């Protein structure tokens, strides 16, 4: 049985049927294991397992190291089979089909074109190949009677020196599938300020930005994402909880104080792209515990932050957005109204024009209403 065969329910409502928005979902973290095996054979790449189920288990084992650096090593395998236009098109098409099967109606797919040039592709050719695959996937979804929309988040690797070049790439393709920009990779030691010229260029060209920050580094990284990166969303942002002080006066009274940074993020409704399973795997929540119930997600939610739920990397975490919602519902006794709030938060934070975000919110609300009526 695969993860997509699992049933996750609240009452009589199957969570997979609920409309969802996916904001933090890496293309090179969402390959089907069978696809990796087939593409690796074509490219002459060695794989640790020749059976799809065993390869899926291998990813989970490798990614449970408890730190981001070891977690990222698994991408050496996935990116190695993503070096041709045909491979990128196939992977992007399957990615869309998997999103749709998960109930996603709007998804932003992030990936770093600079990591896919080993076999002669240019940056522009790589972006065009992925866009072709995404469009083919959407067409196939529509043939199946469903509707969805996807956009590319073009990403620069934070440890490299191609930030401005990749920012210019993103702007060139803004009317051909690209909706925003990101930086990713090892966070500690590579602050967003390293790519200040890229962020200046993006601001001048009015392309929205999300930045990985507050996953493997702390408050200074988040500050740099907001100041240097002008980030409208925080990729993970989980360590913003370090700027939240909780004091228990007695058994019945608890006082919570937000630092200036946390207050800024909350007041300006800067979305947190939280990824529960991934945050456990990388040790991002180690300061608060090692179980999902220790995740600051509920703290942020109760304090009024704009929290969103994401998978980060479907293959590395062996997960789906449906599963992440179910895990949170079990850990914090959330109901369908809570899950709808998370999707509306994501719709509001999507890199779409205002009117289209409002339409997306209507799709979410109607979908939840229909599901609840059907399950009543």
Automatic annotation (TrEMBL):
<comment type="similarity">
    <text>Belongs to the metallo-dependent hydrolases superfamily. Adenosine and AMP deaminases family.</text>
</comment>
<keyword id="KW-0862">Zinc</keyword>
<dbReference type="GO" id="GO:0046103">
    <property type="term" value="P:inosine biosynthetic process"/>
</dbReference>
<dbReference type="InterPro" id="IPR006330">
    <property type="entry name" value="Ado/ade_deaminase"/>
</dbReference>
<dbReference type="Pfam" id="PF00962">
    <property type="entry name" value="A_deaminase"/>
</dbReference>
<dbReference type="GO" id="GO:0046872">
    <property type="term" value="F:metal ion binding"/>
</dbReference>
<dbReference type="InterPro" id="IPR032466">
    <property type="entry name" value="Metal_Hydrolase"/>
</dbReference>
<keyword id="KW-0479">Metal-binding</keyword>
<dbReference type="GO" id="GO:0005829">
    <property type="term" value="C:cytosol"/>
</dbReference>
<keyword id="KW-0378">Hydrolase</keyword>
<dbReference type="InterPro" id="IPR001365">
    <property type="entry name" value="A_deaminase_dom"/>
</dbReference>
<feature type="domain" description="Adenosine deaminase">
    <location>
        <begin position="19"/>
        <end position="365"/>
    </location>
</feature>
<dbReference type="GO" id="GO:0006154">
    <property type="term" value="P:adenosine catabolic process"/>
</dbReference>
<dbReference type="GO" id="GO:0043103">
    <property type="term" value="P:hypoxanthine salvage"/>
</dbReference>
<dbReference type="GO" id="GO:0004000">
    <property type="term" value="F:adenosine deaminase activity"/>
</dbReference>
<protein>
    <recommendedName>
        <fullName>adenosine deaminase</fullName>
        <ecNumber>3.5.4.4</ecNumber>
    </recommendedName>
</protein>
């Amino acid at each position: 049985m695969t993860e997509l065969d699992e049933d996750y329910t609240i009452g009589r409502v199957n969570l997979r049927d609920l409309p969802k928005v996916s904001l933090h979902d890496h293309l090179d973290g969402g390959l089907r294991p069978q696809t990796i095996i087939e593409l690796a054979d074509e490219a002459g790449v060695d794989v640790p397992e020749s059976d799809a189920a065993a390869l899926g288990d291998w990813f989970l084992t490798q990614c449970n190291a408890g730190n981001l650096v070891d977690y990222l090593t698994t991408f050496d395998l996935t990116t190695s089979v993503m070096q041709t236009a045909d491979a990128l098109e196939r992977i992007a098409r399957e990615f869309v089909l998997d999103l749709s099967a998960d109930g996603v109606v709007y998804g932003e797919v992030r990936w770093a074109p600079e990591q896919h040039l080993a076999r002669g592709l240019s940056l522009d050719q790589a972006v065009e190949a992925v866009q072709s695959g995404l469009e083919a996937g959407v067409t196939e979804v529509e043939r199946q009677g469903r509707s969805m929309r996807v956009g590319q988040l073009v990403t620069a690797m934070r440890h490299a020196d191609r930030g401005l070049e990749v920012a210019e790439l993103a702007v060139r393709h803004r009317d051909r599938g690209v909706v925003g920009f990101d930086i990713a990779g090892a966070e500690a030691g590579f602050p967003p300020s390293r790519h200040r010229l890229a962020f200046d260029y993006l601001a001048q060209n009015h392309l929205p930005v999300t930045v990985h920050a507050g996953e493997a580094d702390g408050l200074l990284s988040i500050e740099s994402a907001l100041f240097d990166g002008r980030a409208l969303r925080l990729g993970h942002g989980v360590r913003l909880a370090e700027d939240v002080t909780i004091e228990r006066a007695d058994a019945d009274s608890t006082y919570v104080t937000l630092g200036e940074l946390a207050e800024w993020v909350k007041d300006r409704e800067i979305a947190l792209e939280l990824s529960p399973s991934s945050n456990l795997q990388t040790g991002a929540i180690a300061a608060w515990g090692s179980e999902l119930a220790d995740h600051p997600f509920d703290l942020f939610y109760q304090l009024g932050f704009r929290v969103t739920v994401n998978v980060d990397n479907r293959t590395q975490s062996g997960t789906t957005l449906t599963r992440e919602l179910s895990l949170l519902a079990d850990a914090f006794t959330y109901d369908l109204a809570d899950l709808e709030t998370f999707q509306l938060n994501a719709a509001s934070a999507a890199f779409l024009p205002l009117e289209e975000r409002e339409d997306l919110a209507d799709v979410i609300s109607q979908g939840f209403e229909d599901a609840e009526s059907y399950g009543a």
